[in-house]
Design goal:
This protein is an alpha/beta fold and 509 residues long. Among the domains are: 113 residues, no CATH class; 108 residues, Outer Surface Protein A, domain 3. It has 18 helices and 18 strands. Strand 6, helix 7 and strand 7 form a beta-alpha-beta unit. Helix 2 packs across helix 3. The longest helix is centred in the last third of the chain and has 18 residues. The radius of gyration is 27 Å and the shape is elongated. This is Methyltransferase. Pfam families: DUF7059, DUF7782, MTS.
Length: 509
C-alpha cells in the first residue's frame, strides 16, 4: 500500500519551511511578538487581541494574519514560499487554504475552526479539525516510554503522530479520509519527519501488523450511524466504533504493547454500563484494560454540543433524528473518558472499569504507567508476605447514622487517596481500615491478618481470602505501597490476587 503524498511538492515544502523559520513563525517568536495573553487567545483560535497588537505588515505579521487569524491580505504582501498554501479571495487578495499552527516545536496543518471560516463553502464534511481539547487530553494520557513502532489510528492532521515521533523509531498513521491523510503527510513533511501514512477505515490499512503503541482519537460521537462529518461520525450506530477498536487490540498489539484512545459510550436504561464496557475487551486474549470515565452528559446537551460545533445549515434536521434515536435505544446519557488496553499475555486478565470523582484531575501518562506497574507487581508478588507503607496524603472519612434511641451506627467509611493526583475516593471495609492502621510497622500483611484473626476469633486463611481482593484494589490506588525488599517471594500471588478471571468490572472510583 502506497503512503500518502503531501498537499505540495517536496521542493515547495522545503521553501515553505525555510520561510517560516527565517521569519520566526514559531510559538516562542509569536509570544514575543504579541504577548502571552494574545498568544493564548490564538491557541483558543481567538485572534481578536492579536489583530489589535500586530502592527506593521512585516513578513511575520502577514503569516500570523493568514495562517492563524484566517484573514485576507494583498497578494503582493504574501511571502512567495507560502503561495502554494493560499487561495484567491478576489480583487488581488489571498487567504490561507489551511490553518498552519505553530504547535510546541512543530507546525501542524488542519482546516480552520468553523467560527473563523463560517461561510457555507468552508463547511466540508471531510474537514480536518484543528488541535482541540480531546487531542490534548489523549496526549496527556499517552505513555511516553520509547517504543519501536507506533500507530496513530485516525490521525486527522497528525498531531498525535507528532508526539509519537519523539518516542518511536517508526510511526505509522492512518485515516479514512484521503484529505486528512494528505494533511497529515504535509504536517510530517514540513517538520522533516518520515511517517508511513495510509488511507482506510480503522485498522484495515494495517491488517496483519502489530505495534508497540497505538493511539487514537477516533470519530466516536454516539448516534444513529449516519455520517454528516467524518471527524465526528464513524458510520457505526451507538458506541460500536469504540467497541470495535477495543476488540481489535489482540491483532494490533505486540506482546506488552498498549492501545490508548478517547471514547464516548452510552448509558442505557436498565443496563450496567461498566459491565457492558468490560465486554469490549475480548476474553482469553491476554489483555488487561483500564477504562476510566471522566464525565457523563445528558443526551440533549450532548447533541446540542456537537451541533453547535457543526453550526449553520449542516445542523438543520439532525437534532430531532438524533434525539429520536436516543429515545428508541433507551439511551439516558453519554459517558466520556479514556480506554487503555495492554497485551499482557496473561490469560487471567484484569479489566477495570471505573468512574473518577469530580475532584479528580485529567489522566496522565505517568498515572497510566503507575496503574499498570502496580498491577504487574500484584501478579509477581505475594501481598501476604509483603510489608507495606501507607500512600501519600491518605484520609479516612466515616459516616454514622442515628438509629432511633440506640445511639450512633457506623454506616460507611470512605478512603481518599490524593497521592497520584486522581483523588481516588472509595468505600472500604472495617478490615481494610484495620490493615491500613497497621501498615508502616515491621509486620507483613499476612502477619497483620493473623493478629486480627486471633483477636476476632476468626480463621486466618478465610480472613486472608476475604481481604486480598480489597488489598489489590488498595495497591492499585497507591494507598498501600510495598516496602522495597520486604516481601519474601512471589509464589501464590496469581492464585491469591487474580483468581476468578476478569475482576472489578463494576468498581467506581
Amino acid at each position: 500500500m502506497m503512503t500518502t503524498q503531501p498537499l505540495i511538492a517536496p521542493s515547495a515544502v522545503t521553501a515553505l519551511r525555510d520561510a517560516l523559520t527565517s521569519h520566526g513563525y514559531t510559538r516562542d517568536a509569536i509570544v514575543t511578538r504579541v504577548g502571552i495573553e494574545a498568544a493564548q487567545g490564538l491557541n483558543r483560535y481567538d485572534p481578536t487581541l492579536t489583530l489589535q497588537l500586530l502592527g506593521e505588515d512585516d513578513p511575520l505579521a502577514v503569516l500570523i494574519q493568514l495562517f492563524m487569524c484566517g484573514r485576507t491580505v494583498p497578494l503582493d504582501r504574501a511571502e512567495p514560499a507560502v503561495v502554494p498554501l493560499l487561495e484567491s479571495a478576489g480583487e488581488g487578495t489571498v487567504r490561507a487554504a489551511v490553518h498552519l499552527h505553530p504547535y510546541e516545536n512543530w507546525w501542524a496543518i488542519s482546516d480552520f475552526p468553523r467560527f473563523l471560516r463560517p461561510a457555507p463553502q468552508d463547511r466540508r464534511a471531510e474537514a480536518v479539525v484543528p488541535i482541540g481539547l480531546d487531542a490534548s487530553l489523549l496526549r496527556r494520557a499517552t505513555l511516553t516510554h520509547h517504543v519501536g513502532s507506533a500507530l496513530d489510528l485516525g490521525t486527522g492532521g497528525g498531531v498525535q503522530a507528532l508526539h509519537l515521533s519523539a518516542q518511536a523509531d517508526k510511526v505509522t498513521a492512518t485515516d479514512l479520509s484521503p484529505r486528512a491523510a494528505r494533511f497529515a503527510a504535509t504536517t510530517a513533511a514540513l517538520n522533516g519527519l518520515d511517517w508511513e501514512i495510509l488511507q482506510g477505515d480503522m485498522a484495515q490499512p494495517v491488517a496483519g501488523r502489530r505495534f508497540d503503541l497505538v493511539v487514537s482519537n477516533p470519530p466516536y460521537a454516539v448516534g444513529p450511524g449516519t455520517v454528516h462529518s467524518v471527524h465526528r461520525d464513524s458510520g457505526r450506530p451507538g458506541d460500536a466504533l469504540c467497541a470495535e477498536l477495543a476488540g481489535a487490540a489482540p491483532e494490533l498489539l505486540t506482546e506488552g504493547g498498549y492501545l490508548q484512545f478517547r471514547s464516548n459510550w452510552v448509558h442505557r436504561a436498565g443496563e450496567d454500563w461498566r459491565e457492558r464496557l468490560a465486554g469490549w475487551i475480548p476474553r482469553g486474549a491476554g489483555l488487561d484494560a483500564w477504562i476510566v470515565q471522566r464525565s457523563v452528559t445528558g443526551v440533549v446537551p450532548y447533541v446540542d454540543h456537537w451541533l453547535e460545533l457543526a453550526g449553520g445549515e449542516e445542523a438543520l434536521g439532525q437534532r430531532e433524528a438524533w434525539l429520536r434515536w436516543f429515545e428508541t435505544q433507551k439511551v439516558e446519557a453519554v459517558g466520556v473518558g479514556t480506554v487503555v488496553v495492554r497485551r499482557s499475555g496473561h490469560q487471567q486478565s484484569v479489566v477495570r472499569v471505573e468512574e473518577m470523582s469530580s475532584e479528580a484531575g485529567e489522566l496522565t501518562g505517568a498515572q497510566v504507567a503507575g496503574w499498570f506497574g502496580r498491577r504487574d507487581w500484584l501478579r509477581a508478588h505475594d501481598p501476604l508476605r509483603t510489608r507495606f507503607l501507607p500512600g501519600r496524603g491518605l484520609s479516612l472519612w466515616q459516616q454514622a447514622d442515628q438509629r432511633g434511641g440506640t445511639g450512633w451506627e457506623l454506616t460507611q467509611q470512605v478512603l481518599k487517596v490524593p497521592g497520584d493526583g486522581l483523588n481516588w475516593s472509595d468505600r472500604i471495609s472495617p478490615l481494610a481500615v484495620a490493615l491500613l492502621g497497621g501498615v508502616g510497622r515491621e509486620a507483613t500483611l499476612g502477619e497483620q491478618l493473623a493478629r486480627i484473626a486471633e483477636a476476632e476469633g476468626a480463621h486466618a486463611d478465610r480472613l486472608a481470602e476475604v481481604a486480598l481482593p480489597e488489598v489489590a484494589r488498595l495497591v492499585e490506588r497507591g494507598a498501600l505501597v510495598p516496602v522495597e525488599g520486604a516481601e519474601g517471594g512471589a509464589e501464590g500471588a496469581e492464585a491469591g490476587v487474580e483468581e476468578g478471571g476478569a475482576e472489578g468490572v463494576a468498581d467506581r472510583g
